[in-house]
Amino acid sequence: MSGARLEVEGLGKTFRGLRAVHDVTFAVPAGAIHALIGPNGAGKTTIFNMIAGVHAPSAGAVRLDGRQISGLRPDRVCDAGVGRTFQIVRPFKGLSVLENVTVGALHRQPRLAEARAAALDILSRLGLADRRDQVAESLTLPDRKKLEVARALATEPKLLLLDEVMAGLRPTEVDVMVGFLRDLNESTGLTILLIEHVMRAVMALAAEVVVVSYGEKIAQGTPAEITRNRAVLDVYLGEEEVA
Amino acid sequence: MTQDFLLSFAQAITKGLLTGMVYGLMALGLSVIFGVMRVVNFAHGELMVVGMYLAWAAFEYFQISPLLSLPVIAVLFFGLGYALQRGLIQPFIGRPEHQQFLLLLGVALVLVNACLAIVGPDSRGVQLEAQFESYELGPLVFDAVRLHAAIAAIVIAAVLWLFFTRTRTGKAIRAAADNHMGALVVGLDVRRLYAVTFGVGAACVGAAGALMITIIPVTPFLAAEYTLLAFVIVIVGGLGSMTGALMGGLLIGVSEAVAGLLADPSLKSMFSFGLLIAVLLLRPQGLFGPKSSS
Amino acid sequence: MSGIPPRLLGVLGLLLAFLLVAPAVLGKYGLSVLILVLYFAYVGQAWNIMMGFAGQLSLGHALYAGLGGYVAAGLFFHYGLGPWAGVFAAVVAASLAGAIVGYLGFRFSLAGVYFALLTIAFSEFTRLAFDHWSWAGGSGGLFLKVDGSTSLLNLRGGPVLFYYVILALAVGALILSRVLLESRLGRYWLAIREDAEAAQAVGVPVLRCKMIAVVISAALTSLAGVWNAFYYNNLFPETAFSMGRSIEITLAPIIGGLGTLFGPFIGAIVLTGLGEVFTDVGEYLGIPGIKQIFYGLALLAIVMYRPAGVWPWLAGRIGLK
Question: pTM of the predicted model, to two decimals?
Answer without folding.
Answer: 0.91
